[in-house]
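pasting for the record
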Amino acid sequence: MPEISDLEPRHPYRIQADGLYVTLTSENGDVQVKPDYKHEERFHEQIWTLEPAIGGTFGFRGTNSKFLGVNNYGHVGASVDIIREWERFSFERTENGYYFVVYWRDSKHYLFKPPNEEYLEATPHIGDATPMTIEDLL
């Protein structure tokens, strides 16, 4: 797992949560966590390009050219062309990976994968956050 300081702009990565990969499942920006597609035709759906944002934050652009972010309901998707506050991520390191941090509705939230579900959402509670890893594809 690379260090956050080693992440390179415009570089392809995969994001893993709870043993599954953050996957763009439709052109309209639906995102789910799915098994490894590395040896499948749909592998491109799991590739995210890192884009620098302000204040040491990052955005992740999917193959639909949209940015990963949090919608009005707190669910994670990829449906906007620009990095706004709720598409800017920072990270907090844990022994198991990173917590993805996003400022949504004027407060700090963490990405969370509910048990037995295939989606990610934002939670204000660090105790609910899902540790995530970033896989360098180059």
